[in-house]
UniProtKB/TrEMBL annotation:
Keywords: ATP-binding, Nucleotide-binding, Transferase. NCBIfam families: phosphon_PhnN. GO terms for cellular component: cytosol. The lineage of its organism: Bacteria, Pseudomonadati, Pseudomonadota, Alphaproteobacteria, Rhodobacterales. Residues 3-175 form the Guanylate kinase-like domain. It comes from the Bacteria. It catalyses: alpha-D-ribose 1,5-bisphosphate + ATP = 5-phospho-alpha-D-ribose 1-diphosphate + ADP. This is ribose 1,5-bisphosphate phosphokinase. It is an enzyme of class 2 (transferase). One of its GO terms (molecular function) is ribose 1,5-bisphosphate phosphokinase activity. Pathway: Metabolic intermediate biosynthesis; 5-phospho-alpha-D-ribose 1-diphosphate biosynthesis; 5-phospho-alpha-D-ribose 1-diphosphate from D-ribose 5-phosphate (route II): step 3/3. The gene is phnN. Its EC number is 2.7.4.23. InterPro entries: GK/Ca_channel_bsu, Guanylate_kin-like_dom, P-loop_NTPase, PhnN.
């Protein structure tokens, strides 16, 4: 039996990393993909492997990625080795990009998309709390809305208020179809 592949997507400040960390703590059986990204690793950031652009392109040339994409001037890749558990029935989740989903869906037609959302005021407060960007940069981010491509279906997880409630919604989305129940 094959595992399920999930892509967690959403705008900056929606709380993807927070929800993902909490869900994975509750469900250690799900494999979280460690992406390869062309930026330096930072303490207290999402777990990823930071590489140079040259190293990224070398890996891409050697066909080491299941898929890759570019966003915001960076390259992102999902190593093929990170998806190996799918063949043995393990569920796998990765932090994805809304713009890359159509291409990924072509390679993985059973991809399940989880869209984390939050209103702009909540996102602005979260982004400001990170202390990594100026107010002007935060406003630019908030203007950069990227809807899902036409025809893509997603399970939406609203993270405007209680992180506990949003985490429960994410955990419900990760349950096998036969175990799902309504969260209100």
């Amino acid at each position: 039996m094959a595992g399920r592949l999930f892509s967690l997507v959403g705008p900056s400040g929606a709380g993807k990393d927070t929800l993902l960390a909490r869900a994975l703590a509750a469900r250690p059986d799900i494999h979280f993909v460690r992406r390869v990204v062309t930026r330096p690793e930072r303490q207290n950031d999402e777990p990823f492997e930071g590489v140079s652009e040259l190293e990224f392109l070398r890996r891409m040339h050697n066909n080491l990625f299941a898929f890759s994409w570019q966003a915001h001037g960076l390259f992102y890749g999902i190593p093929k080795s990170e998806l190996a558990g799918l063949e043995t029935g393990q569920d796998v989740i990765f932090n994805g990009s809304r713009a890359a989903l159509p291409g990924i869906r072509m390679r993985y037609p059973d991809l399940q998309i989880l869209l984390v959302t939050a209103n702009p005021e909540v996102r602005a407060k979260r982004l400001a709390g990170r202390g990594r960007e100026s107010e002007a940069n935060i406003l630019q981010r908030l203007k950069r809305e990227a809807p899902l491509a036409a025809g893509l279906q997603a399970i939406e997880i609203c993270n405007n208020h209680s992180v506990e409630h949003a985490t429960e919604a994410l955990l419900q989305a990760l349950e096998p179809v036969s175990a799902k129940r309504s969260i209100r």
